[in-house]
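Predict structure. Chain length: 460.
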Amino acid sequence: LTQRAHSGRGAAPSNCRRMSEQLRTALHVLQSVHDAQDLFQAAVALRYGIAASAPSMAAEERSQLTHALAELLGAGALPREALGQVASALALMTKLAWPSTVEAAQSGQPVAAAPVLDVARRLIPRGGTPRVAGLEILRALLNEFSSYRALAHAMSWETHNAARASFEALALPIVVDTVLGTLAEPCPDAATARAVAELGSAALGWDFQTRVRQQDAIRCAFGHGAGGTVDDDDDDDMFRIVRPPDAWRGVLADLTLPRRMLAFYLEQRKFGGDVAALARELLLPLCCTKGKALFPTESERCAYASTLVQCLASLADAPCASSATNEGAAELYSLAVCLAALASNYRLRLLTQVAAETQSDFVALLGVVTMRTLERHPNAETDALWDAFEATLTAWGALLADAPLLPDDVNEPALLRPGAAHVFERYMEVRLAEAENALTSYDELAEQFEDQASLREHLE
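Prediction complete.
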């Protein structure tokens, strides 16, 4: 980097004279070099240099560096590899400035992230590479403020918690509003679709809770006030049920939101692979939100659940939602996890009411998806089918556990127990067939080897 900085391409920026030599050199390379590999290395050096020098960095130096990074990203010319590193560095600089801004924000002054948010929102409408750059900046902010890196950044737990809570209240709504706006814009290529989906997943997947581990204890920074919480009883490896704060009702309780997310995924599915998977993930957070803040009345909650069931049924009817291909197996897994989240979140009583009032039969849909996960050998080509089947079992288990608790005026769905029995029967058929095939293969192999030791070595 030093050779690049002093190879006749000019001096370091005059507005950054107070920065350390490492940071000045890295920034100069980013501003004057065009080779992608050099830019990436400079961006990495810059990011780690900021983290290492954070304790001794003066306020003026932070301000200069933040301004320089914002200008660099605002140009929208960095390659994607370097862009992510520079955006992370800018997010870190924003967080470092946050403790002195919380009090200012409470007194009505602009939030510290405002200049960075403005840069991102100016870039996104320009499309192409600038649009990706703007989306990457917002995602870096979400990643920085939703995580804890106290040792690396020399920030106390209390500072992290205060910054995260303040960011959630003041900046996150702006990010989510931007996300919802950009979802409606077409994505001309996989890079843009990936950037939109990654940002959407990070924004809508925000857990609305600050949790810190100290001496094996978990504490919620929001307590029991207007802030959001996570239902620990429903915590699962596949999903987490969250209760967003009151202020999020206008965004997350919008009945058009699930259909917009589904439309976005169906449009981006053509890119396949991880881009399609990221787009699918946008449906899951909507299946995991609950609470009186979002749905003050049961009729509103029922209407939202009905919309989600209809969207998942549409996804199940889409051509790709089968086990015939690996892509289809991955889609089935996402669909099964959404169904498991719905069953755990809305419970059997409300889902039964949804089926009676709107003809959106959750149990029937769950049965269809479960059977598809068992259409072929679950481990033939991918583990996604087996994972999908386990997700459907989570949904069946939640529904069956709720059945004895139904009030007298709510009839148990007619398909629930027969459907669960049929699922178990089909599962046993598949596993027994697998055992039979394994035994046949063992007998065939045994004839090819002279002794059991050679056969055992081959099988291992």
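Summary: The two ends are 50 Å apart (CA to CA).
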